[in-house]
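Database export, one record per block. Field names are fixed; values are copied verbatim from the stored entry.
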Amino acid sequence: MAKIGIYGSSFDPITNVHLWTASTVAHRCRLDQVIFLPCSSKRKDKRLHTTDEHRWNMMTLAIEGNDTFVADDYEMKQEAWKLSTYETLKHFKEKYPNDDIYFIMGADLLIDIGNRKWAYAEELVKENKFIVMARNGIDMLKAISKSPILRNNDDGGTFQLIDKGLAMEISSTYIRDELALGGEPRYLLPEVCYEYVKEHRLYTS
């Protein structure tokens, strides 16, 4: 039985922090595989800044050569009505029926789920396991205890909290802003992705 982490994000673009986070989570949580899952441009809650094709190409370039990292375009292929984390995790549990599946997310998303801002929030928590990464200013234990959904569906193994040394705040937004305004974010994303961005003139104003 393998332990698999599902790491969903816009990856717009993928950054060195994404890669470092995935590597650190895999090491600390003893994951056999991390599946990088770029979200679809069809999602109504996301405002993306380049095409699915460019995001996918950069992500696959970034993880090439790491046997623990796998790219999956499941969400990109779904119709808009079927796009929810609950449906996505259901898919991966059916795809890997003999393995343990964990959804990797930041503590800010934990709060959103606890406040029922996600579709099927209660079913999502009740039926799945989560690896939650620290975010600056968020008390993860307090967030769980304050939410009836989170605290009443926590059997001790529902949430694996990673609260040491993972609150790095350099984001895709920061990189996009630098590129748009003529800044130099070269060493904040993989070199191959930086070259791809320059070649295709992505994120320029």
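Remark 1: DSSP finds ten helices and six strands in the chain.
Remark 2: The chain has one domain: 3-167.
End of record.
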